[in-house]
Amino acid sequence: MKTKVAYFGESWFNPAQEALRLKGTEAMKANPTIDWDNSFVPIDHQYKGLLVSENPELLADKEWQLATFNADVQGMNNSDIVVAMYDPKMENSDPGVVWELGYAYGLHKAVYVVLPDEVEEDMNLMPAMGATQIMKVSDLATFDFNKGVYAIFDGAVY
Amino acid sequence: MKTKVAYFGESWFNPAQEALRLKGTEAMKANPTIDWDNSFVPIDHQYKGLLVSENPELLADKEWQLATFNADVQGMNNSDIVVAMYDPKMENSDPGVVWELGYAYGLHKAVYVVLPDEVEEDMNLMPAMGATQIMKVSDLATFDFNKGVYAIFDGAVY
Amino acid sequence: MKTKVAYFGESWFNPAQEALRLKGTEAMKANPTIDWDNSFVPIDHQYKGLLVSENPELLADKEWQLATFNADVQGMNNSDIVVAMYDPKMENSDPGVVWELGYAYGLHKAVYVVLPDEVEEDMNLMPAMGATQIMKVSDLATFDFNKGVYAIFDGAVY
Amino acid sequence: MKTKVAYFGESWFNPAQEALRLKGTEAMKANPTIDWDNSFVPIDHQYKGLLVSENPELLADKEWQLATFNADVQGMNNSDIVVAMYDPKMENSDPGVVWELGYAYGLHKAVYVVLPDEVEEDMNLMPAMGATQIMKVSDLATFDFNKGVYAIFDGAVY
Amino acid sequence: MKTKVAYFGESWFNPAQEALRLKGTEAMKANPTIDWDNSFVPIDHQYKGLLVSENPELLADKEWQLATFNADVQGMNNSDIVVAMYDPKMENSDPGVVWELGYAYGLHKAVYVVLPDEVEEDMNLMPAMGATQIMKVSDLATFDFNKGVYAIFDGAVY
Amino acid sequence: MKTKVAYFGESWFNPAQEALRLKGTEAMKANPTIDWDNSFVPIDHQYKGLLVSENPELLADKEWQLATFNADVQGMNNSDIVVAMYDPKMENSDPGVVWELGYAYGLHKAVYVVLPDEVEEDMNLMPAMGATQIMKVSDLATFDFNKGVYAIFDGAVY
Hints:
Six copies of one chain form a homohexamer. By secondary structure, chain A is of the alpha/beta class. The first copy, chain A, contains four helices and four strands.
């Protein structure tokens, strides 16, 4: 079976994000249409292996900032598709992931948004309409990423 | 003096966003390097003149969603630059504006992020590094948009 | 053997177009370098499964128009190559297919134009020079799409 | 008043096309928002000044074909907007113009389609939805090209 | 008269390059179709104002390298055209300028190559064919950059 | 194992370039992550099979120039990655290869630069920072091209 190399959009700044990230990681590993080994996982490619959460001095380190940004951008450029774990709840909505959704759309790349199962929030219009498909995380493991078919988000937007 | 046609990134979903939007609008009108008359202001181009805030049934109207999304995307395509009012505070960070920052960067377009004066929050790495310049709203009226020079954000990122 | 995911440019508005479409479909299915199962066939992705030919009220339905257009555009974005059935005879030349050829060229994507075997018409300069290769439909089943090599159209143009 | 540099999409292969081309040319010259002197008019930039209609041997001249194609493509690249005279009647629909509409859309460029006044034909979905605005030729002289606002075609499509 | 904002491709690594750079600078300042004040001149935008030639330790400074690279790339993104001083003589051919010519062509941007007057070298095929126009530096001051017309290099290539 | 289709950047204008080209060719053939059969090798796609080195009259043949240029550009467009043999020594630095590196970066494509083993020259900033990875030719046969991860050049730049 064919497999796609994904850029894995993910957030790790609060427990809800972390929970979605871990569920999503398991589902991606289980998905037979994903080439997980060659996929780009941002947390594994922070410059020099340093995470801001453990090295707060990086917050102001321009070399770290530029190198990590460029690596993430190239990670998207060099992947077949973007699959982003995204929780639209205001306190969980990660601007990094949303920026990546817009960037990938601008590159005419297939973009998949993966929501938590229990989400009841509406989504913003731009990431909602700009996605190739939007799904719940419990559907991620069995989704067929080999079919790049546009399906309009059927939830509510603001 | 030369002037630039801007796509004006803006949010109107809570009072803090609304305050920044109004301050930003005044500053853009006052800026001699901005062609405000020909700039694209999203709130003025909602499909058929309908706003979700006043017409909640639009939340689920696919025609309105698609037409408004396409109009916003074309608004960015057809502008010289993107100037976005953006408050990085979690409760004010608008995913629509952040998506637009990523999209415009993907199109190799100049992107300017305008923060509230009083902001003390760090910014996410992607919108911070992906901006041509980042400024406070009180500097907006006098900023020279004719010089598209990259200046790295000097604040902290996460 | 490697296979390519194609966007299948096709027309179904008159018998000559329909005949070419059906011959082309058979050839694509037979071609060992095409991943037909994952290819995008526009007639299978009309919004809500509705065809204008059977539902003439769609001619003026904005939601159907926008959703079908966006789906076709994403179909091209998310495919490896575009393979278009195209008859340059004035009465068979489908503007939809020609628009797609131009769009795909603008995205730096490989574009293959498949002509009817019996065509004696010249081609317009733009779709002719903008194609990676141009072939007759009887050559389609055995063409090797894994080699993306440019070969200038050897017919006449206007 | 600001002016836009246009790529002028035009056809000269039959009398109806020629009539539309001439009307459109007059209207463009009269439009105060168009920089006609610097606009790109394809018929003026055929390679070495040679037209196929007067030099039929060019039909098969590869140097002429490549050079004219590349010049037209650069003409679009280097213009602010594309303004195309287009008659959707089957016998007048020029594949060259339609290809250019698709190409320009792929480049995220503003695309304006100008129809004959008397047209009663439906338009194909792709050029109709992919246009920033569609107008009649009698409205061309007074249209404000400084506002790049998307307006969905209000006619019927197929 | 309208003016274009240029990215000024330039080299300062040997006396021949320096001489061409200075002649080109004077000509650009004299050209009435160039907006020199808003044009991007790389030597003026080295990160923190530091030049490698005077600060050899920058050769290995990753922050300086990344920030200067990103600024140059944005300089091209945010300019109307690229005008590059380029000497094809092997010992004067600057890879930085040539890279920029390729990058700008990939962005569908107008690219002008300015040669020394006395050059007798052939040019490489890629920068030669990928340029909108190629001229001698003595013609630069009076060239009309408002007309983005493709003219094939009439010299020899290898 | 998955394989990538490469555009093979190469030079054959002096013995040092020729030696690197041959070493690189062997390494690419040996690399299990490269699909060499479907990769684009420019020297094999000169228009009509003619090489300038053996047919010096091509230096001034516009048809040959345009057709070879367009074929090389399409070769990059239609490949997964660009792998370029590049010697930064002034007398070996090929402007054609450097132009291709810039072009491919502009298309958001993964770019790999392969240096001679013995190189002691610094690299120019633009091709150095614009590369996904830079390696020595003796590492080429075993490099894993399935992982498109950005790694900043660790040598010196000018």
